[in-house]
Amino acid sequence: MARRRRRVGMRFYGIAALLAALLLYLGNPAGLFRPGRGAPAGGEGRDPRDGPQPQANPEHPTGTAPSAAQSEPQGGTGAAAPPSAARNLDRALGRCDRLDDALRGDRLGEVARILEDAAPPPDELRVRWTALRAKAEAALACGDRLRALVRDGRVLEARQLANRLRDPALPARAAASLDTAAQHLGWPPLSRPWRVATAVPLPASEPLPKLRKVRFVRDGTVGEGALWQHAVAGVTLRTVVAGGYTYPVVPCTDVEPVAPTPAEALQHGIAVAAAGDGFGALLWSCYLDEHGRRGDAERLRELLR
């Protein structure tokens, strides 16, 4: 009886040991819970919550992602050029600023050049450009300014104004605007390269007496002084400076009497022609025209061609 009990106990313990071994086997991660088909060989299984694995790149067999240098597009890394609309706007802004500055400085030749090269402005600048263009056209049509200067005997300033538009290198609109203004005034064309036709004898008497109040041009600036004496080299003037006087010598073509009489204008115009300044002589003829001395004006123009 006891032997039988021992056999039953041994059998029980054997079955228990077998069950324990089976449980240990089934609970091993490499056993029942090992990865199924399609899992990476030799590795542990993945938790599905980890998300999909990155796909292998055929150009990179190792599966690694290309570097930043490899993924960067060819053709350089510089900043892209601004769109053409932005470039056009920038150019138009510069053109408006240059035209505004040229008008403020009374640089009529530059005004003519800017108008000649101007493309239609972008919509953002259309109002500003239209206003500037109207001011520029009015500045080029300088007939009223010329007449006011010439009538007042300020022929040197009228010559400076007209010469800003007489440069042959300027666009044709410059000379055209000057000649249109002259035509409206009843003057000869001002853009022509007026020359003295023949040798002109000086007037019998000096055009201007000593200490006559005059204007003169020196280094492009118009000043005032008094005539001191005439000489072959030019006209000596007396001008007031701090502490006394100075006596500059300037060509007679760069001197004019202040508020001239018609007789002074005629004599001075002849002296200017004799010195070779055909355009200056023409402007003095226009002065005589404006003051009703047509015969004297024609006398001066007969010296020119």
Report Rg: 50 Å
H/E series, N to C?
HHHHHHHHEEEEEEHHH
Tell me the structural class: alpha+beta
What is the terminal-to-terminal distance?
163 Å
Largest sheet: 6 strands, antiparallel
Strand content: 5-15%
Please tell me what the overall shape is. Answer: elongated
Q: Which residues form runs of ≥5 with pLDDT under 50?
A: 29-49, 56-78
Q: Indicate the mean pLDDT.
A: 80
- Specify the number of helices: 11
Helical content (DSSP H or I, runs of 4+): 40-55%
* Assembly category: single chain
Number of strands: 6
Note the topology.
Layout: H1 2-27, H2 68-71, H3 84-104, H4 108-117, H5 126-140, H6 143-151, H7 155-163, H8 172-185, E1 213-218, E2 221-231, E3 234-241, E4 244-246, E5 249-250, E6 255-257, H9 262-274, H10 278-290, H11 294-301
Antiparallel strand pairs: 1-2, 1-6, 2-3, 3-4, 3-5
Question: Key features?
Answer:
47% helix; elongated; 11 helices; alpha+beta
Describe the structure.
- It contains eleven helices and six strands.
- The chain has 305 residues and is of the alpha+beta class.
- Strand 2 and strand 3 (234-241) form a beta hairpin.
- Helix 3 (84-104) packs parallel to helix 5 (126-140) and helix 10 runs antiparallel to helix 11.
- It is elongated.
- The relative contact order is 0.07.
- Mean pLDDT is 80; it is low at 29-49 and 56-78.
